[in-house]
From TrEMBL:
Superkingdom in the source lineage: Bacteria
CDD domains: Sigma70_r4
UniProt family annotation: Belongs to the sigma-70 factor family. ECF subfamily.
GO MF annotation terms: DNA binding; sigma factor activity
Residue intervals of the RNA polymerase sigma-70 region domain: 34-98
Keyword Transcription included in the entry's annotation: yes
Annotated SUPFAM superfamilies: Sigma2 domain of RNA polymerase sigma factors, Sigma3 and sigma4 domains of RNA polymerase sigma factors
Species of provenance: Actinacidiphila glaucinigra
GO biological process terms held by the UniProt record: DNA-templated transcription initiation
Record key words, sorted: DNA-binding, Sigma factor, Transcription, Transcription regulation
Name the record gives this protein: RNA polymerase sigma-70 factor, sigma-E family
Domain called RNA polymerase sigma factor 70 region 4 type: residue spans: 126-178
Lineage: Bacteria, Bacillati, Actinomycetota, Actinomycetes, Kitasatosporales
Matches recorded under InterPro entries: RNA_pol_sigma-70-like, RNA_pol_sigma-70_dom, RNA_pol_sigma-E_actinobac, RNA_pol_sigma70_r2, RNA_pol_sigma70_r4_t2, RNA_pol_sigma_r2, RNA_pol_sigma_r3/r4-like, WH-like_DNA-bd_sf
C-alpha cells in the first residue's frame, strides 16, 4: 500500500521557526508509485503499442509528466489514475506518429518477436495483439484497461473520460469482435 502524500506547509503556517520539512514529500510518493506500478504500466503500454522500446519510452515520459505536474495532483490516491491516463494518451500519440511515419516510408518495418519468448506463447500473444489492433480504438482501450490493468468500469470511465454505459458498450462489442477474430482460422 502506498502512503498518501502528506501536506507540506509553508514555514509560516506550521508555527515553527526552523523551517524543517514534514516527513515525506510528493517526490517520495511518486518514487514509491514508480517502484510499485512501473511494470503494470509497462504492460498496459505494451498492449496498446507494439514494441518494447516505445512502451518503455511512454511509461518513462508519463512519470516525467506527472512528476512535473505533481503539485496539481491534489488527491494522492489518484496518482496512479493520472499515470494510467497519461500512458494511454502518450500511447495514442506514439501510434499517431508511427502511422504518419509509415505513410512516408515505402515499406513498413516488420514486427519482430523477442528471442527469449517461447514460440507457442509468442504466437498466442501475437495473435491476441493482432486481434486487439483490429478493434476500434475505444474498444481496444476499454478492454486493455478493464482486463489487463484490472480496472473497474468506473475507473475505466474516469481514465478515458467517458460514461460507465459507454465502457460497458465498448467492452461488450470489443469482446464480441475479439472472440470472432480469435476463433477465425489463421
Amino acid at each position: 500500500m502506498i502512503a498518501p502524500w502528506p501536506v507540506v506547509q509553508a514555514p509560516s503556517d506550521r508555527g515553527d521557526t526552523d523551517g524543517a520539512m514534514s516527513v515525506g514529500t510528493t517526490v517520495d510518493h511518486l518514487t514509491e508509485t514508480y517502484r510499485a506500478h512501473y511494470r503494470s504500466l509497462l504492460g498496459l503500454a505494451a498492449l496498446l503499442l507494439d514494441d518494447t522500446a516505445s512502451c518503455e519510452d511512454v511509461v518513462q515520459e508519463a512519470f516525467i509528466r506527472v512528476h512535473s505536474a505533481r503539485k496539481r495532483v491534489r488527491e494522492p490516491e489518484k496518482t496512479l489514475a493520472y499515470l494510467r491516463q497519461t500512458v494511454v494518451n502518450l500511447s495514442r500519440s506514439a501510434l499517431r506518429r508511427r502511422i504518419m511515419g509509415m505513410r512516408l516510408l515505402s515499406k513498413p518495418m516488420p514486427d519482430m518477436a523477442s528471442a527469449e519468448e517461447g514460440a507457442y506463447e509468442a504466437l498466442e500473444r501475437d495473435e491476441l495483439k493482432a486481434a486487439l489492433r483490429k478493434l476500434q480504438r475505444r474498444q481496444r482501450e476499454v478492454l486493455v484497461l478493464r482486463y489487463f490493468a484490472d480496472m473497474t468500469e468506473a475507473q475505466v470511465a474516469e481514465t478515458l473520460g467517458i460514461s460507465i454505459g459507454s465502457v460497458k458498450a465498448y467492452g461488450s462489442r470489443g469482446l464480441a469482435a475479439l472472440r470472432v477474430a480469435m476463433e477465425a482460422p489463421a
